[in-house]
Design goal:
The protein is built from 4 helices and 7 strands; from the N terminus they run αααβββββββα. By secondary structure, the protein is α+β, with helices and mostly antiparallel strands. 6% of the residues are buried.
Length: 193
């Protein structure tokens, strides 16, 4: 492996005076580190401006659209309820499944376009959401409804616990526990005699 010392002659050699300036394969280390520091500073500036853009865009999106595309699951006294924006998907492109104590929504959409020039474009969209169903909710009675404006409502009622009939609970009296100590030992010796 060649390094800078192999290609650059010693200053005291007679060859150095004959060749003049010699170019090396490797740049000076100071140059590399300076360029690297400049690139890292540019990357930091870009990241900070990108973070500002994202935070500003998020704030603007919340101002323009107060309702988000996903509402958190609501488990109230009435049961479980989730509303998801699925207006980009047709009903046949959506599926809702109950897997254990989770509700899984999957939407898959394929779009293929060919323009008049013969250009072909293909787009594949996937939406996947999962929500945990609380223990007090009847996951077997889950229902889904899709509104005309593309809002999917997933609901499940609270478990109906059977009303317990009134009953008397007997009180059990347990025998007195033997006492430990000198008094019980004397009584034990008398009983043995």
């Amino acid at each position: 492996m060649l390094c800078r010392m192999h290609l650059a002659p010693f200053a005291s050699s007679s060859l150095a005076s004959r060749l003049g300036t010699v170019r090396t394969l490797w740049p000076h280390a100071e140059t590399i580190f300076t360029e690297l520091q400049q690139e890292m500073e540019k990357a930091r500036e870009f990241m900070s401006s990108f973070e500002q853009l994202l935070s500003n865009h998020g704030a603007m999106a919340m101002e323009h659209s107060p309702s988000s595309s996903v509402s958190l699951p609501q488990s109230s006294g009435d049961g479980f309820s989730v509303c998801q924006d699925v207006k980009n998907f047709a009903p046949e492109e959506l599926s809702v499944k109950v897997v254990g104590r989770k509700v899984v929504l999957v939407g898959q959409k394929e779009t293929q376009n060919v323009d008049e020039k013969g250009s072909f474009s293909y787009k594949y969209e996937v939406l996947k959401r999962e929500w945990d169903v609380p223990e007090e909710v009847d996951a077997e009675a889950l229902t889904c409804s899709l509104s005309k404006d593309g809002q999917l409502l997933i609901e499940a009622p609270k478990l109906a616990l059977p009303a317990a009939p009134e009953r008397s609970v007997p009180i059990q009296v347990s025998p007195a526990a033997p006492q430990t100590g000198p008094a019980s030992e004397n009584g034990a010796t008398k009983a043995q005699v």
